[in-house]
Design goal:
The chain is of the alpha+beta class. The chain has three helices and nine strands; from the N terminus they run ββαβββαβαβββ.
C-alpha cells in the first residue's frame, strides 16, 4: 500500500456474533470506584484520561489470566457516534453500536490469545449492540487479533487533508457517515 503524506487509513470491523470457543479467562469491568484500590491501571492509562472516558460513558474491560493477573485491556462505549482523532471526525451510526477502542496488551502477554479473547468476550457482554473494532492497516497484530476474535472487515476509511472517503467493502456491515468534529 502506498502511503500518501498527510493521509490516514483505518480499517473498521464488525463483530459477526458467531460463537467461537475462546480460552477460559475471565472478563471484568474496571470502574472509577475501583481506581483508589487499583492504581496499577495507571501504568496503562493516565487517571485524567480514565476519568474523562468514564464521565463520557465509556467502560474499561480487562481480561485476567488463570492466576488472576490483568493481561489485556479495552475501552468500550455504546453510542450512536464515535470520535476518531485520526480524522478529526465523528462517525455517526443510525443506532447505538458498541465501539471497542484503545486496547492494550502488555508485551509479556502478547501472542497468547488474550487480545482476541477480550474483544470477543466484551462483544458478547454487549450483545444488545453491534460491536465495532478498528485498527490502522499497519498494525498487523491488532488486525489479526480482531479477525481471530470473530470480527469481519467491513469498511475502509481514508483521509487526506479535509477529504474523507468511506468504502463499504463487500456491501457488508452497518452503514454510517462522518461529520467533522467541532
Amino acid at each position: 500500500m502506498i502511503k500518501i503524506p498527510g493521509s490516514t487509513t483505518i480499517l473498521l470491523y464488525q463483530f459477526n456474533k458467531k460463537e467461537k470457543m475462546m480460552p477460559d479467562e475471565s472478563i471484568k469491568m474496571f470502574t472509577s470506584s475501583d481506581l483508589s484500590d487499583n492504581k496499577w491501571i495507571l501504568e496503562y492509562f493516565p487517571e485524567t484520561l480514565c476519568t474523562k472516558r468514564w464521565n463520557n460513558g465509556s467502560e474499561l474491560f480487562y481480561l485476567i489470566d488463570k492466576e488472576g493477573t490483568p493481561c489485556s485491556f479495552v475501552w468500550s462505549k455504546n453510542n450512536t457516534e464515535h470520535f476518531f482523532g485520526e480524522f478529526n471526525r465523528k462517525l455517526i451510526f443510525p443506532r447505538k453500536v458498541n465501539f471497542l477502542y484503545d486496547a492494550i496488551t502488555p508485551v509479556k502477554y502478547r501472542g497468547k490469545g488474550y487480545y482476541p479473547t477480550l474483544l470477543h468476550k466484551t462483544s458478547i457482554v454487549n450483545n444488545d449492540y453491534i460491536s465495532i473494532g478498528y485498527a490502522a492497516p499497519s498494525n498487523i497484530a491488532s488486525n489479526k487479533g480482531i479477525v481471530k476474535a470473530g470480527f469481519e472487515l467491513t469498511h475502509k476509511i481514508f483521509r487526506v487533508l479535509n477529504f474523507v472517503k468511506i468504502t463499504n467493502l463487500n456491501n457488508s456491515g452497518i452503514n454510517f457517515n462522518a461529520r467533522k468534529a467541532n
